[in-house]
TrEMBL record:
<dbReference type="InterPro" id="IPR016163">
    <property type="entry name" value="Ald_DH_C"/>
</dbReference>
<dbReference type="InterPro" id="IPR016162">
    <property type="entry name" value="Ald_DH_N"/>
</dbReference>
<dbReference type="Pfam" id="PF00171">
    <property type="entry name" value="Aldedh"/>
</dbReference>
<dbReference type="GO" id="GO:0006210">
    <property type="term" value="P:thymine catabolic process"/>
</dbReference>
<dbReference type="GO" id="GO:0004491">
    <property type="term" value="F:methylmalonate-semialdehyde dehydrogenase (acylating, NAD) activity"/>
</dbReference>
<dbReference type="InterPro" id="IPR015590">
    <property type="entry name" value="Aldehyde_DH_dom"/>
</dbReference>
<protein>
    <recommendedName>
        <fullName>methylmalonate-semialdehyde dehydrogenase (CoA acylating)</fullName>
        <ecNumber>1.2.1.27</ecNumber>
    </recommendedName>
</protein>
<dbReference type="GO" id="GO:0006574">
    <property type="term" value="P:L-valine catabolic process"/>
</dbReference>
<feature type="domain" description="Aldehyde dehydrogenase">
    <location>
        <begin position="15"/>
        <end position="476"/>
    </location>
</feature>
<dbReference type="InterPro" id="IPR016160">
    <property type="entry name" value="Ald_DH_CS_CYS"/>
</dbReference>
<keyword id="KW-0520">NAD</keyword>
<dbReference type="InterPro" id="IPR010061">
    <property type="entry name" value="MeMal-semiAld_DH"/>
</dbReference>
<dbReference type="InterPro" id="IPR016161">
    <property type="entry name" value="Ald_DH/histidinol_DH"/>
</dbReference>
<keyword id="KW-0560">Oxidoreductase</keyword>
Amino acid sequence: MQTITHFINGSHTDTSERTGQVFEPATGEQTASVSLASAAEVAGAIELAKRAHKSWSQISPLNRARVLFKFKALVENNIDELAELITREHGKVLDDAKGEIIRGLEVVEFACGIPHLLKGEHTEQVGTGVDAWHVNQSLGVVAGIAPFNFPVMVPMWMFPIAIASGNTFIMKPSEKDPSSVMRLAELLSEAGLPDGVFNVVNGDKEAVDTLLTHKDIQAVSFVGSTPIAEYIYETASKYGKRVQALGGAKNHMLLMPDADLDQAVGALMGAAYGSAGERCMAISVVLAVGNSGDALVEKLLPQIKALRVGNGVTPEMDMGPLISAQHLAKVTDYVETGVAEGATLLADGRELTVADHEQGYFLGGCLFDNVTPEMTIYKEEIFGPVLAIVRVDDYAEALELINEHEFGNGTAIFTQSGEAARHFCHHVQIGMVGVNVPIPVPMAFHSFGGWKRSLFGPLHMHGPDGVRFYTKRKAITARWPKPKHAQAEFVMPTMK
Ligand code: NAD
């Protein structure tokens, strides 16, 4: 059986004693084992990345960008192979896998503009004969830790901007689906990236903890579940690193009675059930305002029952399996809890079987009606194809529920009222907001991030925040003419 190793200093390396198992979720079969790096292996990779930083940081931003231009072309040429690697290990359908690669490539495209993005600011004559400016310099070795659900896109939120800014990078992918990022590492080398600039260490808590505490890691970008995000933020901050740690979500759609229902239902189907609900921006709750709930259920239910669920590599599928047997068990437990707590289960995905894939981790689309804010299935992130409808009397009640929820990643309002939409955008306590757009993921040149317990740290991912996160400012004040009076001054310097 294939062993997925590490990619350190430009080559595949492996001295790990421990391994994990990688499964194909559609069949339930183990397809590979993955090396789990020891603390010593991670430290070795950091040392090599630190050496690589010395020269990489001195290469002009334009020449760093040129490597990314080549990388972009290579990813495009290999998109089918990359998508299949994602689907085999994650389960999502091939077109969705391609979609995440394309969203990741948009960050590469943004990072290709790094010569412009790194420019500092200059003020001439801040005092007589004195100029002042600031420059943005790289941090050194930075680390990224990714979740299983976007094995290509989430790493691409991080490393293109980090390396374009002159840093070197250690990526720790999810141990559940590491192959696609290993392929990205090879493509970066093929594009001309010097050895040691981008490294992949596979592993689990031991590898992560080494990254969080090692003296030569300057910054940590994390995406994953909220408890781990909080742990990453606290630990890495304690060890003096910059941290951005993105966590879980419970994204609400606020459905107003005046919304175009066909548009809303179409949007909801993709946002709730695409990628089997394993997206941090998936819609998992609909707040049906006034009398909108009955009509919603009437239109939604037949579409849920018609979902085509199967192996993600089979054309024409809407939804693949969940990531693992453990996660399938967790999600079906939530369905049982919802029933036990008194919600009305209108569509029960547990009834689904997929022919010739009896060992796969499949769950059909589930729909709960009459969910209340006290229920576990309302409060907690399920991360599966389970949609909850909460019926509310009016817009104000809906807004309050969203604002009181512990998560603050994404939300959307569906309405034809500009006044309601405007009020919503202004008052909602959520990081990313859609108006008649179900999954309002910002483009690469904006920044992505939630509020409340969906993000720990001040800076969001990619866009201007990404550049800010991976660079440090240096302010320079210079005077060239010989000062007339060179004697010491003991008062606070003010410009004359
Ligand atoms: P996870 O938190 O289990 O794992 C994420 C990463 O942390 C993995 O690389 C894993 O190896 C590592 N890890 C796990 N446990 C650890 C521990 N105890 N100590 C140190 N490291 C540990 O998340 P997941 O199940 O892979 O991904 C799903 C979660 O990610 C969901 O909660 C989802 O909402 C979230 N997510 C959030 C965003 C966002 O932008 N906010 C995007 C994608 C996914």
